[in-house]
Amino acid sequence: VQANLTQFIIGCLQGEYFVQLDVDFFFIPHRLHYQRSHFLHEILIYGYDSGEQAFEIIGYNEKGKYARSQVPSLELEQALSTSKDEFLKENAQSGEVPLWFEDKWKGLKIFLYKYKKEAKYYFDPQGVTEQLSDYVYSKNTSKRFRMFSNTKEAVWGMDIYEYLPDSFEMHDPT
Known about the structure:
Helix content is 29%, strand content 21%. It has 174 residues and is α+β, with helices and mostly antiparallel strands. Helix 1 (2-14) crosses helix 2 (73-81). The chain is globular.
């Protein structure tokens, strides 16, 4: 199944689509969780090097920098083999299921993006100012988009720093 999926991804890339899907970062080189722990998260695939038999991806690397890297085809196939159901089963009891991981995300979802050369986007300084203001004053930004989806109750903006210490495990370096 994974080999068919990688062939599907290659076909999408040949059709000039970018591919976003969830993978297990345990199998993705240059990621913090690589060969250390299972962590299900999305990646964006933007190319394929047939000579190297590797996919070109972009995302945050092990140093926290947004960067390009390669994933060999075999490792991508392994990263796709961890299902969301398995991930939930393994991590639910330990309490390590990320907050963004909702039951409605079960099952493989693939998002395809295509660059539209003819599309125009105009910079919106007022929108940027509003978003920055929401961040600084910890306003619920989801309320600005309530016409598209329900608002979300969460911690917003600068208020996150109050909760960060609670989300880290303290380790004794000795």
